[in-house]
Sequence to fold (151 residues):
Amino acid sequence: MLREILFPLLLCLAAFVGFDILQGQLDTARDERDAAQYEANGLREAARISGEMLAARDEIDRARTQELNHARTEIDTLRLDVADGRQRLRVKATCSATTPDATGAGGLADADTAELATDARPDYFTLRDQLALSRQMILGLQDYVRQVCLR
Fold:
């Protein structure tokens, strides 16, 4: 009779311990699942933000490159116009009055507008091109800091 009572009691105790162990494993699995879902959501959000930042960077680059190309086209047009004589590169200058020399002839030899020397023109256009490039690089970096880094 003791066997008839003890066996079901031990069976119930073993089932209870087994279910308790399984419940602990289930809780651990749920915690691990929740942590993995949280991490996956964080990674998705990081990927979304990275995508937006790359898109913003690409848009800044596209806009600044377009503006640089426009400025270079204007510089090339001016270079061709100067070379063909359609425009002149004028220099803002003032000439001081000359004092009469020993012969008594005084005054300016030429009253025409001052112009950039022919051999200095390539340097002028190189400087304009470098200025346009530097300007777009600086503006692009400022846009990048404002739109991407400070975000």
User: Anything to note?
Assistant: The mean pLDDT is 87. Residues 47-93+114-151 form one domain. The chain has two helices and no strands. The first helix runs from residue 2 to 84.
